[in-house]
Design goal:
474 residues; alpha/beta; 7-stranded mixed β-sheet; two-stranded antiparallel ribbon; 16 helices; 15 strands; 33% helix; globular; disordered N terminus; disordered C terminus
């Protein structure tokens, strides 16, 4: 790294322009005090980024037959696992960043009393990151638990401009009761700031983009800026040019790459809006103009938002709800045209289970795009994938039975050295997923937490000594 001698730029530096535009900067060498070394200042600026991703409807591999075929978790425990039959096969290039936790349960999503029977779809999402049991209500007296993303944001996200962001793919603009006595907020929300405070989610990439870059602090500012038909970067071009005169060669190149990525995402959003306002028939006629009809394009734009947010340290915490329970969406690229929810009710038929697994595979296949983005963003002496903890899973197991056994769950990234990666760990029968989440919270720095949800203790996310000795002796 090249350092500027004698002065440095504050980490929380913005390029500000008219119409409320404020572009945060990536970490530059010039932000490290002269003579300082990265390791000496890392504690002040080097916090783990957290993403909690939920995909509804469990997994084909949580079915009894699907488990024997290893449709989710591989057959081998430890490091020599084979992903070829698994819905996780697209993650093979990132196996060194992959931690698979299999055979855990989400008991808190089960029905606790007779009147709750049948309501699994309408309480499960709220359980995923809280590992708490929701109070059955169709009113405003909701109660569940604080979600792990918010526990982290409350402790380590308050020094960022945006403590956390919540994104989604499916329509969640519903209110009132859903079914079986549950308010829709339990179905729509996976992030809870407190047991009674569900956090709203953003579906439109344009809205997320504008929030991230302060692209218009008021509706009037946003209208004025778009009327000009200019990139947000045009509003800060002069300031960016002045800043470059203070930077070294590597920093200038780093800043150029960052600005290029902002402009590319902005261009993709603009193309989506133009297409959706063209008058042509849409696959998602109810969706805002900024929402792509293509599932993959929509997800990738949301990945881009998260990568840029992490790079600029605008926020360190995201939750991302990639589906909505009972969704009938079709994913043609998956290899099946069967709607999502009907496909999940496979009746235990091996052929139908395998067809549902195609959808699981497709959903997981969107992750490498994000992983590659993070791995390609250098920060200090590492990259953002090394510094991130990305959780992907569901609080439902076998969707055909609406049970919450053998739920799918993985962690990705290095979490600043707190996740080993390249590991499949199988829990003893009856182990709560909350145990693994408690361990992950400790890895995030919340070491003083004695419990989380219905946890009964920690679940070690490293290879047991006995397995290490066995592997080294083989």
């Amino acid at each position: 790294m090249n350092f500027i001698t004698g002065k440095h730029i504050p980490r929380r530096t913005f390029l500000r322009g008219a119409a409320g535009v404020a572009v945060g900067l990536p970490l530059l060498d010039a932000m490290i005090p002269a003579g300082g070394r990265w390791r000496e200042v890392a504690a002040a600026v080097d916090k783990t980024r957290l993403v909690g991703i939920e995909m509804v409807h469990g997994a084909a591999g949580s079915n009894d037959w699907g488990a024997t075929q290893h449709l989710w978790s591989p057959a081998q425990i430890g490091r020599t696992f084979d992903l070829s039959t698994s819905a996780l096969s697209s993650l093979e290039p990132y196996r060194d960043y992959l931690t698979i936790v299999s055979n855990t349960d989400c008991q808190m999503a089960e029905a606790f009393q007779p009147k709750e029977i049948g309501g699994d779809h309408f309480r499960t999402s709220a359980v995923y990151l809280t590992q708490a049991h929701p109070r059955q209500t169709e009113g405003s007296d909701v109660y569940i638990g604080t979600s792990m993303d918010q526990l982290y944001a409350q402790r380590f996200g308050q020094d960022t401009p945006i403590p956390s962001m919540q994104l989604c793919i499916e329509n969640v603009d519903q209110s009132g009761g859903c079914a079986y006595g549950y308010t829709c907020v339990y179905t729509d929300s996976i992030s809870w700031a407190s047991p009674t405070e569900p956090l709203p989610v953003i579906r439109d990439p344009r809205v997320a983009f504008d929030q991230l870059f302060g692209a218009g602090s008021t509706p009037e500012d946003r209208v004025a800026r778009r009327r000009e038909n200019r990139s947000i970067l045009d509003w800060v071009a002069a300031r960016a040019a002045r800043l470059k005169t203070e930077l070294g060669l590597e920093d200038r190149a780093r800043l150029d790459r960052y600005m290029d990525n902002i402009r590319e995402l902005e261009r993709r959003i603009e193309m989506t809006e133009a297409q959706n306002r063209s008058g042509e028939a849409r696959e998602l006629p109810e969706a805002p103009a900024g929402v792509p009809d293509s599932f993959r394009e929509h997800v990738e734009q949301m990945w881009d938002v998260q990568a840029l947010a992490f790079q600029s340290d605008m926020t360190r915490v995201f939750s991302f709800k990639m589906g909505r329970d009972s969704s009938a969406r079709v994913f043609p690229e998956s290899g099946t045209d069967k709607p999502f929810h009907p496909a999940s009710h496979h009746g235990g038929n091996p052929e139908a289970v395998s067809e549902f697994n195609l959808i699981n595979r497709y959903h997981v296949s969107t992750l490498p795009y994000f992983l590659e983005k993070l791995k390609g963003i250098e920060e200090g002496d590492s990259n953002l994938l090394d510094k991130s903890m990305i959780l992907y899973g569901s609080a439902m197991g076998d969707p055909n039975l609406h049970n919450h056994k053998r739920v799918p769950f993985i962690a990705l990234g290095g979490a600043n050295g707190r996740l080993e990666g390249g590991l499949h760990l199988k829990a003893p029968d009856g182990t709560p997923l909350a145990n693994a989440m408690l361990t992950l919270l400790h890895a995030l720095g919340l070491d003083d937490m004695d419990g989380f949800g219905n946890s009964t203790g920690e679940f070690a996310l490293s290879m047991p000594t006995s397995m290490v000795e066995q592997a080294s002796g083989s």
